[in-house]
Amino acid sequence: MAGGDEVGFRNRMRARWASRPAARRAAVVVAVEAAASVGFYRLDHSLGYGAAVVFTILWMRKVPALPWRLGLQCAFLTLFALGSAFGSASLSIVIIFGLAFALSWIPHHTKLRVPLGGGGRRSLPITRSWALPVAALLIAVSYPFYATRLFTIPIFGAFPDVGTGVVIVVFVMMAVGLNIVVGYAGLLDLGYVAFYATGAYTAAWLASAQFAGQKCPTPGVSIADCTVAAVPRHSFSLGGIGVPMGTGGFHVSIFLVLLIAGLITAAFGIVIGLPTLRLRGDYLAIVTLGFGEILPQVARNGDNLGGFNLTNGPNGITPLDSPGFGNHLSNLTSGVLPSNYLTCCKTSLFGHHIGSADIFFWTALVLLVFTVFCSLRLRESRLGRAWVAIREDETAAAAMGIPLMRTKTWAYASGAFFGGIAGAYYASFKSATFPGDFFFNISVFILCMVILGGMGNIWGVIVGAAFLEYLDREGLANTGDWINRHIHVGGWHPNLDVPLYSSGIYGVIIVAVMLFRPEGLLPSKRRAAELHDVEPHDKPLYDLQHEGA
Amino acid sequence: MLSSLASRRPGPVASIGLALVALVVFWLAVNFVKAPGDWIEVLLIGLTLGCIYALVALGYTLVYGILELINFAHGDVFMLGGMISISIAASFGLKAGAADLWPLVIVVLLLSMIACGTINAAIEFIAYRPLRGAPRLAPLITAIGMSFIIEDVGLVWKGPNYINFPDVLPTSNIFSVGGVAVSWTTPIALLITVPVLLALLYLVQETRQGKAMRATAQDMEASAIMGINVNRTISFTFVLAGSLAGAAGLVYSLTETTVRFDQGFQLGLIAFTSAVLGGIGNLPGAVLGAILIGLIQAFNEGLSWNAPGSDWTQSIVFSILILILVFRPEGLLGERTPEGG
To answer: Which is it for strands A113-115 and A123-125: parallel, antiparallel or unpaired?
Structure first.
């Protein structure tokens, strides 16, 4: 096998490196690091400083005594921070690496352990399993308060504003939902955008004037002969917010809409799943792709389905009702729950004027936390363990009495549920839904998030999704700017329009991850073992050479 | 096969399927009676499309037959084939009515086939070979990634707009029958496609290399034991599939005269549907399926009486794909495999 040769080559090179004298090795490393730092410095000053800091801290790991090492590293960081405060280096670099450094000191193992499900035999060290997520959540929740005061990241540019943050959170939610299908159950879904679209259109139907229709206020006169202004024929309201008087159509409160959208999408997932889930993996992928292509076309052509305007065609459905809790709940909680998101808010907190984008952002975070919580609990449940069993070996799982069809359908339905909620919330945030939002590219984009982060590991998926969505919204454009400004060979400038090539960039990410690190950047241990130890039964039963000797 | 069908009473699914087919036949008949001239014209357009789909579908079916991998990048290789043909044709300065036009078209065809064959083999070498032992979904995901990458190669190379093939086909009609003018498009598509198909069939059925391919498709390990160089055989299959895509690229750009970077993926999916319709892994099946899909598309877009129109083409094609996969995964000509269901 080619893989064997490669490993052999790697091992040989490693052995050769180890056999060199220690001093020479150190000299080579220092030379490489210095060259890298200088190179980075030429590109961007703060990058060069950052590289130098990282290399120095890595070198300090050689100090054997722990207190000395820690003291030395902290002293160095402080010195650097002070120096940069008065000097030219960007303070941002110090903050980033200081934080990373502090996080790396959260111990892996402590005596305190929390029991997980499954009979209480397994447990996770408390610090890593709780401290990191809680810290991350706190950082995320307080983001609106410091978003505008943040520094500029080298190459990637400024931090996203809160409005972009909402989109990022929504896409993270979708990635977490897809992770249930792809990561837990191992079913490749290439049409996840169909669920997103279903959720978005459900929200649009239930919270807009789409189905208002028209009739003449004068009784017995048809709309064609009507001389006064027509009024809506249908009107239904259940907690709709900010709907002007006399608007027809369905107006349901956003929180009910989210739930209904999730349920309808889950039902849709079951409808798709029941006939197709007995197909083999790659056929299933194709069928889902087919649904993902059909649905947007139905949305595009749906302004005249036998004379009925279902989706308003390429113009999309807009505007949607503004989300909100209504005056009653708002008064009950003395204004903590805003009555209408769009006209919110007149309060200030810690010197920050709270705007409607902040409220949208926090609601999205609540939904995300709900998704993550459900996803984590599902993984530990009987159903979740059945998914993993099916993913690892379908035949063996069936032999153990797991009902394949039902279990897979549940995976599909759960994934669809969260995709539907995310789609509905996104539509309500944008106050519109257009058929052009639901291209195949989006399905692959969300899949790319799951793969990059690490299929099956929810934290990896969150990080991968947040990073990729940020790239898609702002990062790629900023990076392109930076490349165009900084990189030139003589008089030649690249002049790239980087966002134009986004799908190719995702392609490169997918291929690179699948070839070099199929378990993703932050892998789940179990998935990594599965992907690397592909054919355990290929090991010979008897080792003839040793047997003979 | 037919006898086995006849001896069995059709189940509910088969009855519904037969009813659907009968409905389509009725619809075609009514259209024919209403406007026979248009009908024949649309039929010819459908045949041209079918030829292109057949060339691309064969590439899918060849690769699937040997690796059980849906090579998503294949449609984009076809798109590159179109771009390569256009570039070469432009550099040759092809002109309508020139004496050396057809020899030059043949040269463009061969060059495009060689280029696409090489590209396809390179894709296999870079992206699929390292994943030979990995779980099935790994190369599938990689194939999607490769497809996006190649699409962007086309985008970087030729930009986001349509590029044109020099207009070399004679505009005059060859002959006309009962008011139906037969232009050059369909005969030329057939003239290029049929020899290529025959050559392929000969290669797979009669030559030593073809035998090796069939053996590898049946059982990779056993054929390796028998001394077949599996890696080389697979590379050869990819070269073959790629060169078919290259030929399709030329036929497409010659008859439709425009190519854009994002056309490969859609057309590739339709061609894949053809391969599934005919029975994936089955060469004559792929051709049959492609002709059928080409006709369905042309009839849907060209007929006037109660046709859904081009807005719905994709939905119809993918509905066929889903129905075939769900109810008859072995396709029209394929055979039911133990794990195919």
So the answer is: antiparallel
Complex confidence, ipTM: 0.86
Final residue belonging to a domain, choices A398, A433, A468: A433
Distance between B176 CA and the closest CA of chain A, angstroms: 37
B107 close contact with A: CB closer than 8 A: no
Nearest to A444 among B144, B152, B318 (CB): B144
**Average pLDDT, integer, range B126-147:** 88
- The whole-number pLDDT of residue A263 equals 95
3-class secondary-structure state, position B200:
helix
Domain that holds residue A78: 22-105
Kindly give, in sequence order, each residue whose CB lies less than 8 Å from that of residue A543, ignoring residues fewer than 6 positions away: none
Residues A194 and A89 in one domain: no
Q: Which helix (H) or strand (E) is A238 found in, with range?
A: strand A235-238
The verdict on A307 and A412 lying in the same domain is yes
Residue B201 contacts A where some CB pair is shorter than 8 Å: no
Residue A40 is assigned to a structural domain of this protein: yes
Query: Which residue in the set B69, B135, B140 is minimally distant from A534, CB to CB?
Result: B135
CB proximity under 8 Å: B 310-329 to A: 311-312, 314-315, 318-319, 321-322, 325-326, 329
Within this chain, do residues A311 and A429 fall inside the same structural domain, yes or no?
yes
pLDDT tops 50 at residue A2:
no
Q: Name the minimum distance, in Å, from the CA of B229 to any CA of chain A.
A: 13
Domains in chain B: boundaries: 55-163+181-263
By percentage, how much of chain A surpasses pLDDT 70? 82
Give A447→chain B minimum CA distance, Å: 9
Task: Annotate A115-155 with three-state secondary structure.
Answer: ECCCCCCCEEEHHHHHHHHHHHHHHHHCHHHHHHHCCEECC
CA distances from A314 to A235, A296, A426, B263 (A): 24, 10, 18, 21
Q: Which residues of A touch B265 (CB under 8 A)?
A: 440
* Residue pLDDT, tens place only, B235-280: 999 999 999 999 999 999 988 888 998 888 889 999 999 998 988 8
- Answer with the one of A433, A463, A489 that is the final residue of a domain: A433
What does the pLDDT read at residue A541? Answer: 47
Inform me whether the C-beta atom of residue B153 falls under 8 Å from chain A C-beta atoms: yes
Find the residue in B nearest to A533 (Cα): B134
Phi, psi of A13 (to 5 degrees): -65, -40
pLDDT tens digits for B86-96? Answer: 999 988 888 77
Chain B CB contacts of A1 under 8 Å are: 133
Confidence of residue A106 (pLDDT cuts 50, 70, 90): low
Same domain, A313 and A244: yes
Minimal CA separation from A32 to chain B, in Å: 29
At residue A210, the pLDDT reads 77
Closest-CA residue of B relative to A183 is B137
> Do the domain assignments include residue A196?
yes
Question: Residue B189 carries which side chain, given as an amino acid letter?
Answer: A
The single-letter DSSP state of residue A433 is B
**In the beta sheet, which residues pair with residue B258?**
B164
Q: Is residue A499 part of a domain?
A: no
What DSSP state is assigned to residue A207? B
Minimum-distance CB partner of A518 among B129, B134, B311 = B134
Position A126 confidence tier, pLDDT thresholds 50, 70, 90: low
Does residue A161 lie in a domain region?
Answer: no
Output the pLDDT for position B338: 42
Q: Provide the pLDDT for residue A94.
A: 63
> Count of CB contacts below 8 A, A vs B?
132
Chain A contact for B162 (CB, 8 A cutoff): no
Give residues 167 to 196 of B whose Cβ lies within 8 Å of A: none
Does residue A72 share a domain with residue A178? no
The count of domains in chain A is 2
